[in-house]
Amino acid sequence: xxxxxxxxxxxxxxxxxxxxxxxxxxxxxxxxxxxxxxxxxxxxxxxxxxxxxxxxxxxxxxxxxxxxxxxxxxxxxxxxxxxxxxxxxxxxxxxxxxxxxxxxxxxxxxxxxxxxxxxx
Length: 120
Known about the structure:
The chain is α+β, with helices and mostly antiparallel strands.
């Protein structure tokens, strides 16, 4: 194992910050309500969580290199202190409102989610 691979594994084991990128298909009829709920329900609740660092809701514009996604038109990018703490946050009542009431009800399923280690 290389030294850099070892350090990356060591950081992950100590709970380095992670990002979750969730690609969402939002129908035009639901966009206005999604944006309102993101501000009113999602951010107001997730900001209370000690595990939370940042969240952004991105709307797809165009592909610069490669092909545009076939159906996903939004990406929710969330940064958390660690994956272990994010998992604990999922059990909290505010998570159920933040995710299920504010985001999930406006998207086509299935959505797709990716996790990344975050390096500042």
